[in-house]
């Protein structure tokens, strides 16, 4: 019995010791060898760049088209146009109605989708091999001759307005939307890609037609053909379906100034909230910047997979949250680094202070080998998952082409990750991370949060009632119409 009691005490001491209380991730597994399937890239005479990846394991073919225009190309004053164009590409064409398209893709057992993002619009089709020519014809019809039926536009508009109303009651959505607006200012990346109630209400069918006419052309698009099809068969099919698509130059966009990192603190008031959403970040670099890899690893160390200082401090050491992270978004023209977490209302000030402290520590202190190796091991180890299928390979190649990068980078990805040193991390942190100029957004109960912010030295806080929020206003505050006075008064 005494032996059993001593063993139990030893186990209890081990479990409750400070070392075991720390959440230590397991050591990474050895990286698997990566074999990249062969692919071929050609450009049609009309400028359409085509990537073909042959993969004969399954009798299916996937088509992916990217058009280099998204919400960043929305007409002035009308955010949401690109999103509507993307959503309606497959909802009716010059030859087929929405119902006919839906019925025929179901009949052949395929899948069809379309949409838009920040820098691009897209359409995807997946069919069995024997329907390859059908898929090419349908893709050409959807991308080249969408009809944007008024009834479909009205339906999509109603759905978007309803979703927007629901989203504005979600503190996470509000925090994300406001931090993007603060970080990017009035650069197109800072405006709501899905539009605002006012802009969506004003969008007309002609707006969609003009956007499509301006930006959808073969010399402004990329197409991937992936699956059980040989290279020559694929290029012959693409030439047949898209060879007569006439090219034209896309519009010359006026240069949009990327704002410098600017300190601004906005507290969106949600009375009686039991927790606070916290965001902190600033503008960073575009995807094809030569320091992208090093700054991406630095961000992983701050709050990403493989290291995550924010998670270690805010959750493991202080128990202030269930999760904390930092992400680097890198777009065509610029990018951002944004940290996010949530915490109980009563601990908002402490959580914000610790978050900002970690930005400062990344700049001031060299990164240790263990943290760097952890971030590198995660990126290198997860890379095979991103090229697991032929479709994944095609997507990776399309992304490299879209961002004007060398496709050969795919084969050297791991080597470039492991070549980054601690000195590189400190260099890019000092150059691009600006803790003193962080934009900060909090969504919570202002009455309880404001005193905490003052206690941790955060001043010049703009308090904004949620009902007054307007992302298109410089002040972020909705303008209140002033009633005109009657004559003679």
Automatic annotation (TrEMBL):
The keyword Signal applies. Residues 202-377 form the Peptidase M16 C-terminal domain. Residues 1-21 form the signal peptide. Gene3D superfamilies: Metalloenzyme, LuxS/M16 peptidase-like. Keywords: Signal. GO terms for molecular function: metal ion binding. Residues 49-177 form the Peptidase M16 N-terminal domain. InterPro entries: Metalloenz_LuxS/M16 (IPR011249), MPP/UQCRC_Complex (IPR050361), Pept_M16_N (IPR011765), Peptidase_M16_C (IPR007863). PANTHER family: METALLOPROTEASE, PROCESSING PROTEASE. This is Peptidase M16 inactive domain protein. It comes from Luteitalea pratensis.
């Amino acid at each position: 019995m005494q032996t059993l009691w001593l063993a139990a005490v030893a186990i209890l001491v081990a479990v409750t010791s400070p070392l075991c209380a720390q959440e230590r991730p397991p050591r990474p597994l050895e990286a698997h060898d990566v074999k990249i399937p062969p692919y071929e890239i050609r450009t049609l005479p009309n400028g359409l760049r085509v990537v073909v990846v042959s993969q004969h394991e399954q009798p299916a073919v996937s088509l992916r088209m990217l058009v280099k225009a998204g919400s960043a190309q929305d007409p002035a004053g009308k955010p949401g146009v690109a999103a509507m164009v993307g959503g309606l590409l497959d909802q009716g064409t010059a030859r087929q109605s929405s119902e006919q398209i839906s019925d025929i893709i179901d009949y052949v057992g395929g899948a069809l989708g379309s949409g838009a993002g920040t820098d691009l619009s897209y359409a995807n089709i997946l069919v069995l091999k024997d329907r390859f020519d059908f898929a090419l014809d349908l893709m050409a019809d959807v991308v080249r001759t969408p009809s944007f039926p008024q009834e479909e536009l009205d339906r999509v508009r109603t759905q978007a307005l309803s979703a927007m109303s629901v989203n504005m009651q979600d503190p996470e959505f509000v925090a994300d939307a406001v931090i993007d607006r603060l970080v990017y200012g009035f650069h197109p990346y800072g405006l709501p890609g899905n539009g605002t109630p006012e802009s969506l209400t004003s969008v007309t069918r002609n707006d969609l037609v003009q956007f499509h006419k301006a930006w959808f052309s073969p010399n402004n698009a990329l197409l991937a053909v992936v699956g059980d099809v040989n290279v020559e068969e694929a290029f012959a099919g693409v030439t047949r379906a898209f060879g007569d698509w006439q090219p034209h130059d896309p519009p010359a966009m006026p240069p949009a100034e990327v704002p410098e990192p600017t300190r601004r603190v906005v507290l969106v008031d949600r009375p009686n909230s039991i927790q606070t959403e916290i965001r902190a970040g600033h503008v960073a670099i575009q995807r094809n910047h030569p320091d992208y890899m090093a700054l991406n690893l630095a961000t992983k160390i701050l709050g990403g997979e493989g290291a995550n200082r924010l998670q270690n401090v805010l959750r493991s050491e202080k128990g202030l949250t269930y999760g904390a992270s930092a992400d680097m978004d890198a777009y065509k023209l610029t990018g951002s680094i944004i940290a996010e977490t949530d915490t109980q209302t009563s601990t908002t000030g402490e959580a914000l202070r610790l978050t900002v402290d970690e930005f400062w520590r990344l700049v001031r202190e060299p990164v240790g080998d263990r943290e760097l190796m952890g971030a590198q091991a995660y990126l290198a180890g997860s890379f095979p998952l991103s090229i697991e299928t032929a479709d994944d390979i095609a997507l990776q190649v399309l992304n490299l082409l879209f961002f004007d990068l060398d496709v050969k980078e795919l084969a050297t990805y791991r080597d470039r990750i492991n070549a980054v040193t601690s000195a590189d991390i400190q260099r890019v942190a000092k150059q691009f991370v600006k803790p003193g100029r962080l934009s900060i957004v909090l969504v919570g109960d202002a009455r309880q949060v404001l005193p905490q912010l003052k206690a941790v030295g955060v001043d010049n806080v703009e308090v904004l009632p949620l009902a007054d929020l307007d992302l298109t206003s410089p002040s972020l505050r909705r303008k209140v119409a002033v009633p005109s006075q009657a004559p003679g008064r």
